[in-house]
């Protein structure tokens, strides 16, 4: 028989464990080994769900992650333009990486509270938080820098550009309208099909890219 977990127990014992594990997951670098016991956290969540603390736990989790993302957004705002794209890429990658651990740890809460009571999904909710607290606040600074970087070959690595563009598309597909040509390089079928009358224009764009590559030391 499971011991009763009062709201005081939850606040003094259970949530602090979860809080510290989430902290570590949100701030780890890719490939870091984190000294947390997934089994212990998983079991902690399970017990709290069984004892009817899901609503409190969900509210604490959302508040915790929102505060973290607001800090991330402020740090990005303070970034100089030449580091801005790279730092946005790191913030996006780090957060999406953290979700791959956080979402499974809260699987019981998702199943027995978020899906059944709120008719939502934890991963969707947490991605939406990044969209609202980081991406939406930075998209109008980020997009001109991405377009500038795209027209200056090798200013940022192709993998960084691909990560950001695909990430933005995942967060909000309608952002394609801001830079259709840029998105179409990384996302299949976002532009209408090619029209014969525009083939010359495509060929001219291709030749321009070839010239830029040659100017930057790449042979054909």
Automatic annotation (TrEMBL):
Determine if Cell cycle is one of this entry's keywords.
Answer: yes
Pfam families hit by this protein: Cullin
Cullin N-terminal domain segment(s): 15-171
Using the record for this protein, list the coiled-coil segments as residue ranges, or answer none. Answer: none
Arranged from A to Z, the UniProt key words for this protein are: Cell cycle
Q: Does the keyword Endoplasmic reticulum apply?
A: no
**Which GO terms of type biological process are on file?**
G1/S transition of mitotic cell cycle; ubiquitin-dependent protein catabolic process
Q: Which InterPro entries match?
A: CACUL1, Cullin_N, Cullin_repeat-like_dom_sf
**Molecular function via GO:** protein kinase binding; ubiquitin protein ligase binding
Q: Quaternary state and partners of this protein? A: Interacts with CDK2.
UniProt family annotation: Belongs to the cullin family.
Its biological purpose: Cell cycle associated protein capable of promoting cell proliferation through the activation of CDK2 at the G1/S phase transition.
Stated name of the protein:
CDK2-associated and cullin domain-containing protein 1
| Organism encoding this protein | Sclerurus mexicanus (tawny-throated leaftosser)
The beginning of the lineage is: Eukaryota, Metazoa, Chordata, Craniata, Vertebrata
């Amino acid at each position: 028989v499971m011991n009763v977990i009062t709201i005081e127990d939850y606040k003094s014992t259970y949530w602090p464990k979860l809080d510290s594990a989430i902290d570590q997951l949100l701030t780890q670098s890719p490939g870091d080994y984190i000294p947390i016991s997934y089994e212990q956290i998983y079991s902690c969540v399970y017990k709290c769900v069984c004892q009817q603390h899901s609503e409190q736990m969900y509210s604490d989790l959302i508040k915790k992650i929102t505060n973290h993302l607001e800090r991330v957004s402020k740090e990005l705002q303070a970034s100089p333009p030449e580091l801005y794209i790279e730092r946005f890429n790191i913030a996006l990658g780090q957060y999406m990486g953290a979700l791959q651990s956080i979402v499974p740890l809260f699987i019981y809460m998702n199943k027995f509270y978020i899906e059944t009571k709120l008719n939502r999904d934890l991963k969707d909710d947490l991605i939406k938080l990044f969209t609202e607290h980081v991406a939406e606040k930075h998209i109008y600074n980020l997009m001109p820098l991405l377009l500038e970087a795209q027209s200056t070959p090798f200013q940022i690595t192709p993998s960084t550009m691909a990560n950001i563009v695909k990430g933005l598309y995942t967060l909000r597909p309608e952002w394609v309208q801001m830079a259709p040509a840029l998105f179409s390089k990384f996302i299949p079928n976002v532009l209408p099909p090619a029209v014969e009358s525009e083939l010359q224009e495509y060929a001219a764009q291709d030749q321009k890219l070839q010239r830029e590559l040659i100017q930057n030391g790449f042979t054909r």
